[in-house]
Amino acid sequence: MVYMKRVVAVPGDHIQYYERQMTLNGQRAALTFEGRDGEYQRAKETIEGRVTTVAFIPDRPSKDYDAKVPDNQFVVFGDNRDNARDSRYIGMVDRDAIIGRVVKVFGSRSATSD
Fold this sequence. Notes:
four-stranded antiparallel β-sheet
């Protein structure tokens, strides 16, 4: 099975995610909430100069996460944060399990802006 997720932390990083707020190596991601789309709340998340559109489901509890990333491991999050089986649920991803890079997203509720 192949999953497509965003790499949010690489070896050596410390990532924290509490109450839908990401902090990477002590730098809190800027989170700007935008409009709603049905049950989804859209937001722009900016960290280290990269802007990503993410979606939350406010009526669903969010899973928190706190980890220091070891060598050859990566932390991945889905852009549909409250409806994604990502590192918060399945653990970190081994370098050998990464098979490619997404270069364009079409038709996503939470498509990236870059």
